[in-house]
Amino acid sequence: MSPALDPGYLLLAVVLSFVGNDLWRVLGVVLSARLDEDSGLFAWVRMVATALVAGLVAKLILAPAGGLALAPLWLRLAAVGCGLAAYGVSRRSLTLGVAVGEAALIAGVAALGI
After folding, report:
1. Which of helix, strand or coil describes residue 103?
2. Rounded CA gap, 60 and 56, in Å?
3. Which domain holds residue 50?
């Protein structure tokens, strides 16, 4: 039997995977009960996370790579506008906003024959 298929090695791989990944998630859940959501530190973390996402979205719109670069800037901006409009109309449903923006981009690319 190959050492990679040995049940002991497989169990070791699962345990090490848990320790390397899920252990920190479990500790985060346990320790998050003590966090005050209204604290200054938590507000700062939320603002930094929001800024990182906004920067990533801006980079994807203004300097895209791969297949997204084939879509013209006006189409990418129009898709973002459609997504934002859907987000606002739907009482802040992020899922609907992203889906509408994506659908608008796909429809625009298809209409342009890109």
Report:
1. helix
2. 6
3. 38-64
